[in-house]
Amino acid sequence: MSEAPRPPPQRSNLIYDFVAVFLVLGIGLFVVYYVVSPRVSAGTIWSLRFVYLVVIVIGAILTINAFGRLIKNYLLPRASPGVGSSLRLAFNVLAYVALLIVVFAYLGVDITGVLLEAGFFGIVLGLAAQTVLGNLLGALAILFARPFVVGDRISLVASQYGVVWPSYAHEMMPQAYTGRVTEINLMYTHFESDDGTPFVVANGIIVSSLIRNHSRAASRELRVRVPVPRTVAFEEYRDRAVAAVGEADHVQKASVRITLAGVDAKTYDVVARATAVGGMDEEVRSEMMRRLLLVTPPVA
Q1: Which of 68, 127, 264, 273 is deepest in the core (most CB within 10 A)?
Q2: Domain 147-216 falls in which CATH fold?
């Protein structure tokens, strides 16, 4: 049974949450400062501090819960199941630890030594877990910026990899990894390649990569390069090539262009460009090349 579509985030509810938080916090501080404070004697100053602390803690808890709902409602529809809940759990842990530190500081409890030790171990842990933290931050960047979503077919050109010179289509090409996004979690993004092979890429690598989102492109320009004997006049060949490539599937006939790309002693290279709508890139290129071979004489 297919999973039911998730409802979109309710922005109006989120706005009401934050408005309610600030109203409760503001009213509480107003009452304490203007109503309770003038009636408190110097001997009961600790009671007043306690009232202030209660108001601050209540306001902080309401704020944490509002941000938790924001994470759940805004990120969950954009990511794989479980990611929004994991982010909300991580946020709640950090937020309540910060609230506990604020409460201790307000009560005058000296936790400097504990914080220094925690900071030292945090630095050591951070240096040891740079890759993990990079992947976590990468997941947040992907979920908020949305360069792609689950179900999109994309190509990744990672900065860690260079370019290759394939025998087809005789030109320098970026080393791209193409597939359909199947899952986005806190550490990795999962893909299914065009041949059905699953693979994963670390989120930290994805955020620094060039991303081509094929699912968001209504059309794209494809090109192939072929050698032509110099015994064939370029103008004559160009007319035949334009007609041939224009008959290829998924190619817009009016967009076909044939240009010179290089000349040597026996041949000249031509590049055929065309706008394609639909179809897989390699399939369309293969069809364009097949059409060109029908009108290209062999090189002696």
Answers
A1: 68
A2: SH3 type barrels. (2.30.30)
